[in-house]
Specification:
Oligomer: single chain
CATH class of one domain: Mainly Alpha
Shape: globular
CATH topology of one domain: Tetracycline Repressor, domain 2
Distance between the termini: 80 Å
Number of strands: 0
Strand content: under 5%
Helix content: over 70%
Order of helices and strands: HHHHHHHHHHHH
């Protein structure tokens, strides 16, 4: 009888799918607010209202949890980008640079407005100088997520490598800063300057980036 009760208790305590999602939600918010190194596993499990064993059970380590938080949002974006690129390829003519930039950027801009925590996390993690976070981001954005630079390289085949990669560096700088939406521009333009709508942001960002890639060396 005692053995059966212990088995039932163990099953009851076993972390399930709901605890995994709660961990991802809690970790996303905490990492976005305090950064990877500013959050402990205990803080995450406390916020998720799960037991301490849930992190090793579902993810193994804090590092793997961090990667899972990013992948949860980034993988659907990659799928949508590839679908949009496929539609452009089926259009019967070579897409303009502006059309290509829209296909690559719009999914990320829309998703960032739908999920403020992920937007802040991506902006913070992408500019975090600590070796741990740089290593994690390099692992996350490996060849699996190279669709953006690969497509932009094809569209700018006329540029020498050093020129292209500097412009790609500027591309990421613009994209990540606008996505992060830190509020800095409001201190210059005034509080009424609206940066909340992705379709408006892209109306200005895409021509700016296209002109940058086309600029004479």
């Amino acid at each position: 009888m005692k053995k059966r009760r212990k088995q039932k208790a163990a099953v009851k305590r076993r972390p399930g799918l709901a605890s995994r999602e709660r961990l991802l939600d809690a970790a996303e918010k905490l990492f976005a607010r305090y950064g990877f190194n500013g959050v402990s596993v205990r803080q995450i499990v406390h916020a998720a209202k799960v037991n301490l064993g849930a992190v090793p059970y579902h993810f193994g380590t804090k590092e793997e949890l961090f990667k899972a938080v990013i992948y949860r949002r980034a993988l659907p974006l990659r799928v949508e980008r590839e679908a949009r690129l496929q539609r452009l390829a089926e259009g019967g003519k070579k897409p303009s640079l502006e059309e290509l930039l829209w296909a690559l950027l719009e999914p990320a801009f829309r998703a960032s407005r739908e999920n403020e925590s992920f937007r802040r996390l991506l902006g913070r993690a992408s500019t975090d100088p600590t070796p741990e976070v740089r290593k994690l981001m390099a692992e996350i954005y490996s060849t699996e997520f190279m669709v953006v630079p690969k497509e932009l390289r094809k569209a700018n085949a006329n540029l020498a490598d050093d020129v292209f990669y500097w412009r790609l560096n500027c591309f990421y700088g613009v994209m990540l800063f606008v996505l992060a939406d830190t509020g800095k521009i409001q201190t210059i333009a005034g509080k009424g300057f609206d940066t909340s709508r992705p379709e408006v942001a892209l109306k200005y960002v895409i021509p700016f980036l296209a002109a940058g890639f086309r600029a004479e060396v």
